[in-house]
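Quick illustration, no need to memorize.
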Amino acid sequence: MFSGEIIFNKEKFEIIDIWLLAPPQGQRVFKAFGDSVLDSLHYSATFHFTSSALSHISIDYKAGMTSRHHLLDSLAEREVKLNIASHAVLHLYDHGHRFLSPFFDYRAGLSDYRLFVVPPADSAVWSCLRYDNHIRLSPRQDSLKAWMMANGQPFSDTLGNGKMHFESNYTSWSPTNRLRIKKMNKIVEENGFRRFQTEEPFLTDRLKLTIQLYLDINDTGDSLYFTTRTLLDTYQSYNYLDLNEVLDDYVNLYFDIGELYRRKLDQELKSVKDITEVKEIYQKVVKEMLAEHQLFEKDAFGGFNRKALEKWKKKVMVR
């Protein structure tokens, strides 16, 4: 699929560069978008190292494509030849430190975008992105921006107040926002086929809530810094009970119980510097959370037992 070269410093035993090159024809790694056909491709990726630590990756490609284009529905289809070139540089920051994967049960088969937005937004980083614009325009782009603004065309190269650019399938617990789970049809798989299941013989099979504790670790060498969040996993949750205020109370209490254990996790991780101990504490707290969720479900599933639900409300508020 690729050919390439490795540049190695024999005296220092250090990797300097790695070049990967895809052949112009006959490759099976890349394909054109839509109904277009990829006629030719020249792709190269260069991995740059500093003291054998990867510092950045530069990627270049030139592609020739044939696109089938419709000017109007009533006109015949015609082919358009396109030549596209691109250059990108991917910088790796803190490449001298090891990366620790977050403690989180990622759903299999998630796209890169969905993986990227699993971590909840960091307010400090978001503020920097908004007010210190990270999109640097060239002089020509600046002139085009000025022309568009002068001619009344809406244009913005900064991020807005909302976070709609980074929609996530995971909902983060909030002290101010209450959650309402919608009524839906459960998707089940049988013999490789997916279908909607609208009825369940057992009431307890009509609602499933999955809460995950997200834990990210930043190793600074002499200390460990932690970021934790309580997340509702909508990939593993569903509801097709009728909506009402009692069900809303049950769902939010379920979420609140998860948040209580996130706070417990924060407390138990204070001053911990050993990764093995972090893993043991995380697994212990998650196990305790699951046990309490099971007890809550047994006592007050869906809010049908209102007396039990009120008892749990008082219990959670006190904690």
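The longest helix spans residues 275-300.
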